[in-house]
Amino acid sequence: MASWGEASESRLIGKRVTRLSGKDKVTGKAKYTFDINEPGMLYGRILRSETAHATVLGIDLSEAEALPGVKAVIPIIEVGNKLRYQGQEIAAVAADTDDIAKDAIRLIHVDLEELPSVVTEADAMAADAPQIREDWAGNQSEPNVREDGDINAGFTEAAVEVEATYHTPVQTHVCLETHGHVAKWEDEQNLTVWASTQGVFGVRNDFAQHFELPANQVRVITEHMGGGFGSKFGPGIEGRTAVELARITGKAVKLMLTRKDEHLVAGNRPSMTQQVRAGATSDGRLIAYDMKGYGTGGISSGAGFTGPYVYHVPNSRAERVNVAVNAGNQRAMRAPGHPQGAFAMDSLMDELAEKLGMDPVEFRRINDPNEVRQAQYTLGAQEIGWHRRNHVPGSGTGVKKRGMGLGSGQWGGGGGRGTEARVTINADGTVEAVTGTQDIGTGIRTVIAMIVAEEFGLDITDVRVNVGDSQPGLPSGGSGGSQTTPSVAPVIKTAAAAAKQKLFERIAPLLEAPVGDLRVGTGTIYVVSDRTKTITWKQAAGQLGMDSISEGGTWDEELRQNGAAGTQFAEVEVDTQTGALRVIKIVAVQDCGLAINRLTTESQINGGVIMGLGQAILEERFMDPETGRMLNANLEDYKVPGTFEIPEIQSIVFDTHRKVTGVGEPPCIPTPGAIANAVYNAIGVRIRSLPITPDKILDALAEKA
Amino acid sequence: MPEKEKKQGTNISRRNFLKGVGTGTVAATVAPSVLIGSEKAADAQVDDAVANATIQLNINGKSYQIEVEARTTLLTVLRDGIDTSGSNIDLTGAKLICDRGECGGCTVMVDGKAVYACMMLAIDAQGKEITTVEGLAEGDDLHPVQDAFIQHDALMCGFCTPGFIVSSAALLNENASPTLEEIKVGLSGNTCRCGTYPFIFDAVKTASRKM
Ligand code: FES
Ligand code: FES
Q: Is the pLDDT score of B5 beyond 50?
């Protein structure tokens, strides 16, 4: 049975290893799609709607075409069709410089007939709202209803009840490298595209289909990528537009979204509003849960969120609808649906615990069926110093009040089939690992090198890793769902093991030993029954003569595991005069199975916590009902965490077994709930709507007084 | 508010367009409210931008001659500029992320001080020492900040990293041993979406001990 071996036997696996790409990234040498400069390259730009809802009556490209330096102008939307949100694509240009492209965009004239629009959930759901999606009566999808047990019986049994409404707004992904491509036709039948994507092969297949090319005549390259968080799977309209502009002009075309575009059209996390009533028995069992909620994913569907979440409720009913508004489509965003649902659930848990007069940790212990999290509660409480919390919320003295809270999360991250890989040993001793996954900042490149180096007794720098390129024809899935490492690592491991076996077979006669007696040392191969028989790795590989060994691998389920439990404890300080909220410390206890690279795993946990913190205290998309436009489509008014917001973060890699589980998404789930509960513990008033901003805190305090 | 009878379309002259009629990128025939252009001010600059100049810039100790428009930023020159001999400058370490002085992704050093290259016109950078992230290492010897970033894994996707590296180096130029609070202030002009901050703080501390 395949295994990752014991921790004591590992030289690299499970250790803290710095990234292979580190040097390129700190010296500015790392080339992202945005950095590709092809000879004679043109710059593409897209004209987008500033109107939330309109019919296109005419598009005049002539003036833009006449501008010197403009090489192509193409319409994207057809006259007669409708624009349904600000930012929707109208036309595109390619020009000698980006500035000229920008000028040209302004010279495209569009005639529109404006239609009534709605950009907030409340407006969309109003009785007299204009119908903006023909297939949804009242701009709402059919409700999705889930029932379990008997809620009436449950509420009869309940000793305490809580009824509350929780809300989280739309967030945007804010990838620092915007979505974009550099497209270049090598000839009429061969296309090369550098893409800022989470899915090299998905993008390749899309282009092949759309431009009617055999898949192997489209090459997609993503050597480095500046953030996706779930928003960068397909090429999007902008990708196809870049390829089309390149086709027309016969030149390479770079087309990157602007910062504003990125906020408007490159995806967002849907909002959530839920009204929930829940009950618990006097001995602290969660017994009944009844929730009705809605969210918007813009003009598209997909605004789901979890609930009930993590904790066991025998009797529950949950009803959710999608609400359409005239805004850009949602896309998967780091643990889609979970942080919203977790914030509501963990807030609810604390409200119930208080009614029961129970410690929030105790109440969770009673209701959480997950054994891993049970152990995490103990560790997290100890690390944050849970005994120091206010036993009576808001009871601290002074202007600045401190409080503590916790939240929980659960994710899958077990990976799956579909990755092909090849590990090659050359006669000069060099080693290569190739697969079609992509390193979007998770560090998979380094993980691959570690696995191969461990298997061969080499250093990671001895392994040349080739990822982010469709050319070798070794597909792998998109990097989403925290699936990359659990999908890729087992295949690399079995490929390396197979290559090692082949090498052993070749050199066994030379060492006059049975194949089964051969082992790798550090840069050596030796005979376990007679350690005097040793040769260096280079000598061994040299036996290959004119050959090389190149082996594929298979995805072995035994090497990975599904299920990542997490718990976080937060300590905050609230200035009751200004409403300023400072998160002081987060203890993040995150289950992740075998952390192949402990260092980059800690980075991922830090990153998840910080994104959760942004959702908790800063981030919100503001739409103007009057104009139908986003008011904060920039990085000044749309706040993401900066240095001042960063608390002390204690990221605890809680590795309970030696099978690989993905960890990209789960650490962002518990953070908002933990912070919201800590704010309550500090000031004794509950904020049920994210982000928790100073104005909300002051309002809540005023209401209480 | 622009006059609403001025229909946008085939018959409008460029001059009229530039005069500010329907300065938004998209005009509507029905509701004048959508004529409010978010890029109104920028439109007026289309004509002003035509003036070209040949300038000399000193970047990473090398002198470049470049023809630029008056509006060309230093960042555009570094990333997309072609010098008069026809070769790409191709210093793409500094990134355009926000395009308005909010994120620090484009940070370079100008006479030893951290500057947002997206906010500086190329013509204003003449006669100054410009150092980009590519110019910090001496041959194969990385700057202590660069070493420390690798060691602490102070980078994930790495897109913000060049900006943070330059800001950190500039911070340490001014304050050789900053406290955590001083590091936060010194790097407050830089944004990282992956959330590398905790390890960045550690890296700057390590680098400060080595310098
Ligand atoms: S791109 Fe210059 S500060 Fe953001
Ligand atoms: S490392 Fe990705 S944005 Fe900072």
A: no
Residue of A nearest to B87 (CA): A39
Please report which helix (H) or strand (E) contains residue A156, including its range.
Answer: helix A151-157
Give pLDDT, residue B28: 38
**The amino acid at B120:** M
Cα–Cα distance for residue pair A351/A355, rounded to 1 Å? 6
Residue B36 placed within a domain: no
pLDDT grade, residue B123 (50/70/90)?
very high
Is the domain spanning A270-411+562-704 CATH 1.10.10.10? The answer is no
Which percentage of chain B shows pLDDT scores above 90? 73
Q: Up-side HSE of residue A635: CA atoms within 13 Å toward CB?
A: 27
Q: Is residue B159 included in any domain, yes or no?
A: yes
Residues 6+ apart with CB under 8 A from A401: A394, A573, A574, A576, A682, A683
CA distances from residue A665 to A256, A277, A479, A612, A672 in whole angstroms, order as listed = 26, 29, 11, 10, 14
The ligand with the least distance to the CA atom of B155 is 2
CB contacts of A175 in chain B (<8 Å) are 193
Ligand 1 centroid vs A571 CA: distance in angstroms?
33
Most ligand 1 atoms within 8 A of CB, residue of B78, B79, B116 to mutate: B116
The band of B50, judged by pLDDT with boundaries at 50, 70 and 90, is low
Say how many domains are in chain B. 1
**What pLDDT does B52 receive?**
87
Distance CA A650, CA A669 (A): 16
- Check whether B115 has a pLDDT greater than 80: yes
**Pairwise CB contact (< 8 Å): B98 & A19:** no
Lowest mean per-residue pLDDT among A190-194, A517-521, B10-14: B10-14
Between chain A and chain B, how many beta carbons pairs sit less than 8 Å apart? 242
Specify the CATH superfamily of domain A33-115+179-256.
Answer: Aldehyde oxidase/xanthine dehydrogenase, a/b hammerhead (3.90.1170.50)
Q: How confident is the model at residue B44 (pLDDT cuts 50, 70, 90)?
A: very low
Residues A638 and A659: their CA atoms lie apart, in Å, by: 39
B 110-129 residues with CB < 8 A to A:
none
Closest ligand to the CA of B118 = 1
ipTM of predicted complex: 0.97
Choose the closest CB to A99 out of B69, B185, B201: B69
- Look at residue A4 and tell me whether its pLDDT is greater than 80: yes
Measure the CA–CA gap between B108 and B117, rounded to whole angstroms.
6
Is B108 a pocket residue for ligand 1 (Cβ < 6 Å)? no
Question: Residue B179 is part of a domain; what is its CATH number?
Answer: 1.10.150.120
Please tell me if the CB atom of residue B121 comes closer than 6 angstroms to any atom of ligand 1: no
- If you write DSSP's letter for every residue of A614-630 in order, what string do you get? HHHHT----EETTTTEE
- The whole model's pTM is what? 0.94
Q: What is the pLDDT of residues A251-283, one digit of tens each?
A: 999 999 999 999 999 999 999 999 999 999 999
* A98 contacts B80? CB cut-off 8 A: yes
Residue B173's domain spans which residues? 144-210
- B82 falls within a domain: no
Percentage of chain A surpassing pLDDT 90? 99
Q: With a 6 A CB cut-off, is B145 part of the ligand 2 pocket?
A: no
Which pair of structure tokens corresponds to residue B192?
């990282």
Asked if the domains at A33-115+179-256 and A270-411+562-704 fall in one CATH topology, the answer is no
Q: Whose CA is nearest to atom 3 of ligand 1?
A: B101
Answer whether residue B14 shows pLDDT above 90: no
Q: Which residues contact A100 (CB under 8 A, 6 or more apart)?
A: A43, A67, A68, A69, A70
Which whole number is the average pLDDT over A580-596? 97
pLDDT digits (tens, 9 = 90+) for A47-86: 999 999 999 999 999 999 999 999 999 999 999 999 999 9
From the CB of B203, is ligand 2 less than 6 Å away?
Answer: no
User: From the list A26, A99, A441, which residue is nearest B150 (CB)?
Assistant: A26
Which one of 3.30.70.360, 3.40.50.12780, 3.30.365.10, 1.10.10.60 gives the CATH number of domain A7-30+415-559?
Answer: 3.30.365.10
Q: Which ligand is nearest to the CA of A635?
A: 1
